[in-house]
Amino acid sequence: MTASVLSVSLRxxxxxxxxxxxxxxxxxxxxxxxxxxxxxxxxxxxxxRANPLQPNLRQAHLIQAELFDDLRxxxxxxxxxxxxxxxxxxxxDLLALPSGTILRIGAQARIELTGLRNPCQQIxxxxxxxxxxxxERTVDGRLIRKAGVMGIILxxxxxxxxxxxxxxxxxxxxxxxxxx
Length: 180
Known about the structure:
By secondary structure, the protein is an alpha+beta fold. The protein has a single domain, classed as M1 Pyruvate Kinase, Domain 3. It contains 4 helices and 13 strands. The strands form 3 sheets. An 8-stranded mixed β-sheet has the order 2-1-6-5-11-8-7-13. The protein has a 3-stranded antiparallel β-sheet with strand order 4-3-12, with no helix packed on it. A two-stranded antiparallel ribbon has the order 9-10. The two termini are 29 Å apart.
C-alpha cells in the first residue's frame, strides 16, 4: 500500500478537535495557515505559559488512520480531525519513524518529524477512556504513545486528501521519537 493523505483538518483557536477541510496550506517555519497552532514560537497554551519564546515543534500534527481502526474495535468512534490532527494518513507507520524523518507530501510540502504527541487529559473529555486506549506498554514496561506525531514545516505548499507521502530517513544512528 502506498502512503497517502486520507484527510486534512484545521481550526482557528484552541479547540480539541479540528474541522475537515478540502485542503490545507502549510507555511515553512509556521505550520498550518489558519490553524490555532500556527506560529514560529510555541502555541500550545500550557507551553506558552511556561515559556512563550520556545520554538514551535508542533506546527503540524499527523495521525495514522490505522489508529482509528484499532480504536473502533475497542468501541470508540473516531473520525479524521477528532483528535486534533491536521493530517490523517493511511499506509505509513508514523510512530515507527525516527526523529528527523522528512515526509514529502503532495507536490511541494516537506514536514520534519520532531516528536510524539503526548496525550493530554482533553482526550478523556472527548470520549471517556480514550486516553488509556491511546497508550500501551511494551512487555518491558516502556510506554507507547499512539496519539500521533508532531512536525515542523520545512517547505510550504498545499496538502489535500489523496496526496502521496514519501519518506526521507535521517542519517543513522536513528533517534526514536520522544514526546514534544
